[in-house]
From TrEMBL:
Positions of the BTB domain: 1-66
Region forming the signal peptide: none
Protein's UniProt name: BTB domain-containing protein
CDD domains reported in the protein's UniProt record: BTB_POZ_ZBTB_KLHL-like
Top-rank lineage group of the source organism: Eukaryota
Length: 213
């Protein structure tokens, strides 16, 4: 068993679970102790401290390691489930639990459409997930309402400016296309005239490549 300290709480966990799944923990436990001293994590008064790890993150890891798969998703509320798997994603990324990271990501992928835009941005940035960033940007481009304060904070100044440029480009492009179509109608040109074929607006992916990705 190993004794670990997270925030102000002690946990006792089988070393096997930690060393088999994580390169970080495997290296940690393989390091020899100082001469004449017991290794850290052997006793409650000499635990292995995990600074920067939150209690909710470590509890999510414990649930994954000790509970059967059907019991891990223990919440009926979508927000609580999202928080649980986000915590699991964070701690597995920090300690290189590759299999657990992929599991948590898969669970979040299944509810990505329900995850708020600002959270998708934060997840995409934290773990280098371009699909999550693209999903967030597309949601913002497709909707009419303005960006919220939380979304601006998640994007940062430079990306907010880039997004506003993309949205303005879309608005101007669609306005120009509408004016061209109106002019074609007045002149009696129709889509059957190849020389005056109707333009289509730029896709979301095109705008993202131009301004954000």
């Amino acid at each position: 068993m190993a004794v670990l300290l997270v925030e102000d709480k002690l946990f006792r966990i089988h070393r096997y679970y930690l060393t088999q799944g994580s390169e970080v923990f495997a290296a940690m436990f393989a390091s020899p102790p100082e001469e004449g001293k017991d290794p850290d994590g052997m006793h409650d008064d000499q635990p292995i401290s995990l600074p920067g790890v939150t209690l909710s993150e470590f509890e999510a890891l414990m649930d994954y390691l000790y509970l059967p798969p059907h019991a891990r998703s223990r919440y009926n509320d979508i927000q609580q489930n999202m928080d649980f798997y986000r915590d699991l994603l964070s701690i597995s990324h920090r300690f290189l639990f590759d299999d657990i990271f992929q599991y948590a990501l898969q669970q979040l992928e299944s509810i990505r459409g329900q995850v708020p835009v600002e959270t998708r941005l934060l997840i995409g940035d934290a773990f280098g997930l371009k699909d999550w960033l693209s999903s967030a940007y597309e949601s913002l481009l497709d909707r009419q309402k303005a960006i919220t304060t939380d979304e601006c904070k998640a994007m940062g100044f430079e990306r907010v400016v880039a997004f506003l440029r993309a949205r303005e480009f879309r608005y101007r492009e669609r306005l120009q296309i509408a004016e061209e179509n109106l002019e074609r109608t007045r002149e009696g040109h129709f889509s059957s005239d190849p020389s005056r074929s109707e333009r289509t607006p730029s896709s979301n992916q095109t705008l993202l490549k131009m301004f954000l990705l």
